[in-house]
Amino acid sequence: MIPSEKLARVTAAMPFWLTYILPPLTWLGAVRGGAWVLLPPLATWYLFSALDAALGLNEQNADPQTGDRDLFWYRLGVMLWAPVQFVALFSLIWYMGHADHLSALEKFGVMFGTGVMTGSVGIVYSHELLHQRNRLERALGDGLLAMVLYSHFRSEHLLVHHVWVGTPRDAVTARYNEGFHRYYPRVLRDCPASAFRAERALLARRGLPWWHRRNPFWKYAALQLAMLGLAGALGGWPGLVFLAVQAGVAIWQLELTNYVEHYALTRRHLGDGKYEHVKPHHSWNSAHTATNWLLINLQRHSDHHHKPDRRFPLLQTYPDATAPQLPYGYPIMTMAAMVPPLWRRIMNPRVRAWRRTWYPDIVDWSDDNRACARRSRTGR
C-alpha cells in the first residue's frame, strides 16, 4: 500500500499531469496543418496504449484514508484543467477564423483533435470534480461540461447512473449483445429526459415545482448559451460549427467509455423494484498504468462505483476474484467497441464467465437485453 507521505510528493502526482501535452499538440496542428492535426488522437489513443504495453499493470493501491491535504498536487492538476481548456478551446475558435492556410479537411481535423482533448480529458476531469462537495470544484466541473454542450450529464450521472447502474433504469448500462451503434442513439435520446425527471423528482420531494430556480437545468442552459454566445462572438458561424463539432466528438468518446464500463453487467433483482447493492463486480476494472494516468484512474471503475466519493488517487484496483477485468485499457477497448463483431468476440466470453462466477443460480438470461435477468429456480 502506498502511504500518505509518499502520495503527498509532487513527483508522485506528475504522471497524471501528462495530459497537459494535449493543448500544445492541438495548437500545433492548427498552426502547422497537414498530418500535424492528427497529434491529439495519436497521443491519447495510441501513445498511451503503447505505454500500457510497455509498462503493464499497476496493481498498487494508495492508502484510502489519505486526506485532501496530501492530495494537493492531484487536485490542482484536475482543477487547473478547466481554465486551461477554456483558453485553448476559445483561442482556437478565434484562430481558426483567421487560418486561411488550412484546407476544409485540415480545419475539421483541428476540430476533431480539440474534441479528443475535451472528451478524453475535459469530461473525465469534470466527472471527478462533480463528485466532490467543494463548490469551486463542482462549478469547474459544470464549466467543463458546458464547453461540450452536455451539462445534463451531471444530473444523469449522479442521480440516475450511480443509483441504477446495472438495472433497466440506467440507460448507460449497455445490454448484452447490444452494439455501440444501437446503444449510442438510445443514450442520446434517453439520458437528457431521465436526468430531467430525476431533478424534477428531487425538487418534488422538497415541495418545489420543476421550474424552481434550484433546478440545475436553468444553470445548464445559461452556461451552454454563454459558451455558444462566446463561440459566435469570437468566430461567427464557423466558431459555432467548431464548438458543435468538438462537442460531438467529446460526447461520442464519453458514451463509448460508458458503453465499455458496464457492458452486460447486471445487478440481481430482489423483487418489488429493488436490487442488490452495487459491488465491485458490477463494473469492468482495468489496472493498465499509462491509460490510468491519462484518465485519472477512471479505469479503476469498480472501486469508483463501490466508493463514489473517493478521490481518484485513492481509487483501489481489484484482482480477478473481486472484479471482472478488461484485457486492455479504455482507448483500445473503445476502438474495439466501434466494430461490434470484434467487440462481441472479445467481451461476450468474458460476460458469460462473469455470469457463471457471480450468478451461477440464474439459469435464464434471455431478458438480459433489458438488463433484467430472471431470477434463479429458487426465486431469489
Automatic annotation (TrEMBL):
What GO terms fall under cellular component here? plasma membrane
Report TM segments.
Answer: 12-30, 36-57, 78-96, 108-126, 220-245, 328-346
**Which stretches make up the Fatty acid desaturase domain?**
110-333
Bilayer topology:
Multi-pass membrane protein
User: Where does it localize?
Assistant: Cell inner membrane
Q: Which GO terms describe its molecular function?
A: metal ion binding; monooxygenase activity
- CDD domains according to UniProt: Alkane-hydroxylase
Annotated GO biological processes are: lipid metabolic process
Primary site of residence: membrane
- One Pfam annotation, family name? FA_desaturase
Highest taxon of source: Bacteria
Q: Keywords in alphabetical order, please.
A: Cell inner membrane, Cell membrane, Iron, Membrane, Metal-binding, Monooxygenase, Oxidoreductase, Transmembrane, Transmembrane helix
Q: Which family does it belong to?
A: Belongs to the fatty acid desaturase type 1 family. AlkB subfamily.
Q: What is this protein called?
A: Alkane 1-monooxygenase
> What is the species listed in this Swiss-Prot or TrEMBL entry?
Salipiger aestuarii
Q: What is the lineage of its organism?
A: Bacteria, Pseudomonadati, Pseudomonadota, Alphaproteobacteria, Rhodobacterales
